[in-house]
Specification:
single chain; alpha+beta; 4-stranded antiparallel sheet; about 25% helix; about 20% strand; DNA-binding
Amino acid sequence: MPELPEVETVVRQLRPFIVGKTVNTATTLHKKTVNYDKYFSRRLQGLTISTISRVGKLIIISFATNKNIHLLTHLKMTGQFFLVDKNNAVVGGGHTYRANDIKSLPNQHSRMYITFSDNSKLFFNDMRLFGYTKLVSSEELSSIITKYGPEPINAHFNEVIEAVAKKIKKKKTTIKAALLDQSIVAGLGNIYVDEALFLAKIRPTKRCNTLTYLQIKSVLRFGGVVMNDSIKVGGTTFQSFNDVYGKPGNYTEQLRVFDRSGMECVNCKTTIKKIKLGGRGTHYCPNCQK
DNA sequence: CGGATTGTTCTTCC
DNA sequence: CGGAAGAACAATCC
């Protein structure tokens, strides 16, 4: 599930723990996770982490000692990081999508872990194996980043909102599909798209080219609002997302339509409807959203 | 047991 | 060539 706010939460929590640390060993437990890179461990060994950042939902770890190598992580649906101290205790304890299976790591969902020179560890767990942690050059990284559209939470988003709206207006797909397209705007996923469309009073099924510029800009701005609000409380917990300390985010209780099918609309008490759109569960209020 | 599940990428069709 | 739609990826949970 992790969307931009959850990824941002993870990055902020990992940052003080891993920046400045030096990789002693990297252990691959599942080859797919590291993109079948035979030299994954060898390439990471001895590198000192300088920064951890994020573009959309993609996590980027860079190194002071070799500026041409970057560790890219996409959590996809079920990827999770866990920090373990030098005594092998999961920092902060906690739980995951299965309440008690991170008491000792690695466990059956651990796919890769890094042991730092101080003997602390960073685990990457991923039940469904869609996520990855792979090494790329600076050139590869740049070409990957250029494929991402602007983020609605960016302070300068207003300067590009017209251009983004223009792009969306030209499309014939549903507005939901356009908002999920990371090359148009980065960061929104299934949850925050449904939330933003609710606040903008637009049905997810509406075709882009039938919306006004005002409507398109409205839903883009609301996308920024819901993601910013979510970041403030540590993201949304739904099924599998927990922060690196194993705690759930608190935005779940603020969701207005997502996962609320059959419940009353917070505005008008109409029953929230759930449909399938583009293969994704889609939630909306049939009265508020036109 | 059938159907559902958060994201992205590839394939197929037009 | 390009956009749109749907499948595929894998392992669960309900």
